[in-house]
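@channel sequence for tomorrow's demo:
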Amino acid sequence: MTVGERYERFMHLVRLGWDLHGLGACASLVLPASGEPVLEVRTADGGPVRITVIRRYCGCVFTWRPWWARLWRRDKWVVAEADNAADIIMAEVNA
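structure tokens (generated this afternoon):
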């Protein structure tokens, strides 16, 4: 992965975190020493949900499912450029 791709993923997560904050969610950007950054969001019941950015055929998408669920569950991700991505994610993780 190039530096530009890493920066793009980081910027998508920062924007999503800010949008979720505006909706009243508790969101924290996690920057591990090794690996990719993730956005950790607290659900209504207090449990954490880890959101990552991956590249798909349609561009970058947010996903909040484990890596193995990304392989076959097509309805568990949101296009990162969507204006209502934060609304969709809040509805899904609190369902």
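heads up for whoever presents: The radius of gyration is 13 Å.
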